[in-house]
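Marked as duplicate of an earlier ticket. Keeping the data here for the record.
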Amino acid sequence: MVGDETDVGLYDSTVDPERQRDLLTDGEIPVAVYGLGKMGLPLAGVYAETTGAVTGVDIDPDVVDRINGGENHVVGEPGLDELVAEQVDAGRLEATTEGPEAAANARIHVIIVPTLLDDDDDPNLATVESVVDDIAAGLAPGDLVIAESTLPPTSCRDVIRPHLEQESGLEDDEFGLAFCPERTSSGRALEDIRGAYPKVVGGIDDESTRAASVVYDELSSNEVHPVSDATTAEAVKVFEGVYRDVNIGLANELGRLADELGISVREAIGTANDLPMCQLHDPGPGVGGHCIPFYPHFLLSQAEEPMDLTRTARRLNDEMPAVTVDRLERELEATGDDLADASVVVLGITYRAGVEETRASPAIGVIDALRDAGADVAGVDPLVDPADYGARAVDVDDLADESFDAAIVVTPHAEFEAIPWADLEPMVVVDGRDAIDLSGTPHRRYTLGGTADGRPPRGDGGADAIAADERSLTADGGTDERPTETDGTLENPGADDV
C-alpha cells in the first residue's frame, strides 16, 4: 500500500481521504491527459485549473507547440482560449509528444482519444491501446488510470486492464482503473465538463471507483454517480448514444409520412412532445459526428442478441442523405428538370452548425449521391473547404453571382442567415432543417418533414393544397408522383467529441 506523502497516489492509499483531496488540488498529484483534441484539450484545461499540475500528450507536434505557446487550437469552444492561455502562463498546463515520459511523471492518467470503426464497422481500439502502451511504460503502484474515451462495454475489463498488467509488469491490484464517460458537446465543452451533468464513475474494483470519485468530485460541481463497475459505466455512455440514434431513426420514419398525410410532421412531433413522456427528436437529412453514428456498432459488433431495432435505426439513418437527394430529384422533375443536368449547391458541410467537424457528416453523403446522379455540385461552408469533400467551393458572399438549379440546406450555419435569397435566381430549395425563410422569393421550397409552424413539405396547406399543387404541376408537364419520404437527425448534445 502507498503509505506516505512522498510518493502520492490515490489508489489504495493510506493517506486520509480529505488529505488526498488537498494533495490533488494543491498540485501534489500530477496528471497526464492523453489526447488534446476537441474534448481532450478542454478536459486538460479543467484538470489544470483544478489540480495545478497537468501534462497534455498529443502526437501532433504543431498542436503541442501551439498549446505550449498558450494558444488554443480548437475552434468554437467559448472560454477555451482564455483557459489555455491562463493555465499555461501559470505553469499549471504543459504539452508534450512524449507519452512515456509524461506517464513516468504522472500519478493520474486520463485517456481521451477516439475509438473509430474499421471498414467492417467494428470498433478499432488501436489508438487507445497505443496510449495504454505509453501509460504502462511509466505506471507505478498507486497510480490511477481513467478512460474517458467512449469504448465498447467490457473494454476496461478485457482489454485495458490486461494490457496494462502485461506491459507494466504490475499486478491488477497495484493500480486503479476506472471508466468515467465524458458527457460533453462541441460548443459547450467547458460548461459540460465543469458540471452540467452528473459524472458517471465505474471502476474495475471498488477502490478504483472510490479514487476516481475523489477526482471528479473536485473537477465537477455536479454530483458524482458511482455505478457497479467499469463495464456498467461503459454501457451508460454507449446506451445514451444508441437511444439518440434509435429516436432519430423513429423521427425519420415518421417524417416519411409528411407527404403522404399532407401534414407537417415537425408540427405533430412538437405538439406530441407537450407530454413529458414523449421526447421525439426531429427529422432531417442525416446523422453526423463521431458519436451517434458510431456507438451502435460498439454493441452490434459483439452482441449475440440480434438487436434488430438498433440495426434498423442505424440503416434508416445511414440512408438519409440519399433520401434527401431523392426528394430533390423529384422536386426537379416536377419542374421539368433532370438532376443529371442540374447544378446544385450544398449549404453546410460540417455535421453541425458552428462546429468544425465533418466526420460522418450527412453533407458528404449528399455530395456523393449528387455526384453519382451526374449533378454539378458546389458547396458552401464557413469552417471547412467544400473542395476537400468533392464539391466546388463557393463563398457565401458570392452566391448571388452564381446560377444554380437547386440548393440543399444540410447544416444551417449562422452565416447563412445573410444569404440574399430574393436576389438569387429561382431554384428548387430542399431545406433539411426547417432553417430558412423563403417567403416573398421566387424559389420552390421543399422542407423535409414539413415546418414547425405547420406547413407540409411542399405548399402552405394540408393534403388538398398539396394535391392541387401536384395537379397544377402535372398540367404544366411535370410529374404526378409526389415525394414520399424525408429524413434526418438532431444535434448531438452530451456526446463525446474526442
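See parent ticket for discussion. The two ends are 34 Å apart (CA to CA).
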